[in-house]
Structures
1.
Amino acid sequence: MTTILLLASLTTLGYSLCYLAVCAASPWGRCRHCRGARYHRTTIGTRRDCPRCDGTGIQVRLGRRLIDHIRTEYRDGHR
Ligand SMILES: [Zn+2]
């Protein structure tokens, strides 16, 4: 039983580390709001630039924002 729990936590940790590595290497991801289409349709059917990504279709990944936050906190704490 303990082995299964250990294996599960190690797998989760491994996935998290891989995700953070991807975020560090390539901070931009496809916008989740418009799925990279750069616009969204309003209720009356007209196109509007996506407000989340300002019509670029890309967004800073959540993990990258987390890394930047930790980095800023670390830097501010070591002055
Ligand atoms: Zn968007």
2.
Amino acid sequence: MAVLITGAAGFIGSNLVRHLLKRWPDRDLVSFDLLTYSGHLANLQEVATHRRHQFVQGDVADRGAVRTVLEDHDIDGIIHLAAESHVDRSIVDPMAFVRSNVVGTVVLLQEAARLWRDRTDVRFHHVSTDEVFGSLGDDGAFHEDHPYAPNSPYSASKAASDHFVRAWNETYGVPVVITNCTNNYGPYQFPEKLIPVVISRAIDGDPVPVYGRGANIRDWLYVEDHCDALALVYERGRPGHTYCIGGENTITNIDLVGMILDELDRARSEPIGTSRSLIRFVEDRPGHDYRYAMDIAKIRDELGWSPATDLTTGIAATVRWYLDNEAWMDIVQNEDSQSFADSWYASR
Ligand SMILES: NC(=O)c1ccc[n+]([C@@H]2O[C@H](COP(=O)([O-])OP(=O)(O)OC[C@H]3O[C@@H](n4cnc5c(N)ncnc54)[C@H](O)[C@@H]3O)[C@@H](O)[C@H]2O)c1
């Protein structure tokens, strides 16, 4: 018996595999990933030869590949992270998001239900985002009963997948849990999301793009804290339930970017403020949600979880990691991601 981690070669997935191999001394893990432009075996290098870990390359939307991996490894638990994950890309190519995020999730659910039949000692954990709830005004926070109102093709595809997961619990009795989490940051994040974009471009002395005037507000969670929350919900979350996860670190994009650039100056012993000259405001992303914030009372009260890493500590660790791992950056950055970023920002 083993737990299948889909999307394991991505940012959160690879951090989760490392976390779970340490946390669960007796469990086998099978990493399943298509290795798209954002998934890299380099992210799993540290555990490549671990005796309780295997990697299988495959597509969650490919029924044959999913059936084979579930049966061959006697999978009795799934933590499903595989997804197209970049909002800007979803605006340019939404069908890729429908295929991997919606069709892929349904294929996985169907094959899990087929294999598990009426077993209750199994678990399907769907990893989702706070973006399914849409945008907040100046007050309030998302919570488990917040109405769904996705605004981007990415968040719409994640919302659809959440609904299918819920339906497989209600209709077919699959023991599911769903987690909706705020923005993650930390080591191994592909350099197309805000924080690694800022760090990598500033390291190279390139302009740092900021949408609009940088007034949008996000809640940031250090990826290791997310992994701890995911493991807890997988272990002890109530079947059929959703748990909201957040960092309780809300900040405007422009303040965050300034903080990262100052940290980079500090780490490179340059006068604080030097790197801020790289900031360039660019035309806002269409449909850009204004504010996200999360009420984490349920996971705190039921499972005793709260974020352990404050933003200052997490950003310092993340900047240090990227400075120490420029070779990783050279491996994962490819022509596809470079040309997407160049044409996207040129159009802003
Ligand atoms: N990054 C965040 O801030 C955040 C926050 C909340 C939830 N999430 C969710 O967590 C999950 C992981 O996000 P991430 O930031 O690590 O993304 P990522 O892009 O770094 O990783 C996604 C992984 O999924 C793989 N993948 C994509 N399509 C696939 C397919 N059809 N079959 C198999 N593998 C496929 C990719 O190769 C990649 O390794 C996603 O489901 C995302 O919606 C992310």
